[in-house]
Amino acid sequence: MTFSESYRDPELVTKTIQRIHKVTTQSWVIMEICGGQTHALMQHGFDELLPHAIELVHGPGCPVCVTPLELIDKGIAIAQQPDVIFTSYGDMLRVPGSEKDLFSVRAAGGKVKVVYSPIEALQIARNNPDKQVVFFAIGFETTAPANALSVIKAKELNLHNYSMLVSQVRVPPAIRAILSDPNNRVQGFLAAGHVCSVMGYHEYIPLAQKFHVPMAVTGFEPLDLALGILETVRALEKGTSEVVNAYPRGVIQDGNRSAQDIITQVYESCDQKWRGIGTIPDSGWKLNTGYADFDAENRFDVGKIHTRESEICISGLILQGRKKPFECPAFGTLCTPENPLGATMVSSEGTCAAYYRYHRGKK
Amino acid sequence: MCLGVPGKIIKIYDENSIRMSDVDFNGVTMRVCLETTPQAKVGDYVIVHAGFAINLLEENEALETLAMLDEINKLGEEQE
Question: What is the C-alpha separation between B2 and A33, in angstroms, rounded?
Fold first, then answer.
């Protein structure tokens, strides 16, 4: 059994939320890193069910939101070239570039294909030997093994018409950056369950200790979320800075070693630019020299990119948890999921999209 | 960011030298790559993200968490 039903049991969830009310004696600010969790928390009404003393702030864990604008513009330029099939996870197509998005490239006749997995992109490359197939390899640690495996297989299969445009980001350096900010308000974290499923959570333990913030590795069902918040609040109330695994059915401390081996075979650490936030040291992965031939940035010359961000959109502040969507004058008026000004309104993991979808306005 | 959906492996096969499987998600079958979980067997439950099984779902741990929560909640009621 997958336990999804048990972990959605309303009675157990209600009881666990009641426990959170009992153990909370003062105000706490907790950040969920993962955008999928932001949506789940809103969908299940956690922000309204939790004690008023607990403020949830939403982190930068939305991969399409943090993919740098330059890279999106590059992707758009590559997708417009003849003899290119540009493949991408679906969410990426509506993210605004400086001038247009990938959807409009497709509407104008460009070959832009949505794939569910890079394995599909690889298959497209095998089936179209006369085309260059590019995969937009974005994401956090969860997509890294899949993306990495596709170039390992491309190399094994001698697929010279396959390459990746890479924006691969990591959570722990982002947590470090958030906690190092002098204006930081976050006192505890929900660590993203599936990132830890791949990477484990040993990297979080020294961070929690250094900055004196507790963290709970948290899953995605309502009961998982309630348990993660309960563990974080308990630690905050006790004044400890431990990392608790509140999602043991999906996570062990060392993570998935096979997946990590695939990542290290292909990628090396790099400083990475996060859209709306800036460059965070050692927060990304790029293809190592053994796989540099598969880097679309080396393969395609698209000339100089001149980026232009929306002047109105505050998605950078949203991604850092410093503003809430309803504090943006464009929210729900100029900026909607149909006409997004920024990536946080596009993505199924973006904070603005969550607030819009679940009707969270100013209290 | 990374929604992973649990499903059950019903068939494992090799496709173009890639270890693939059919995974059942409550009646919907999808093709899932098992290269990142080489230990997975037919009948195992896996967490799937972007067409890859990122890890196995640990059944014993799932039951233990539920039992522990039950304890916490009973304890809470007794204290009232």
Answer: 11
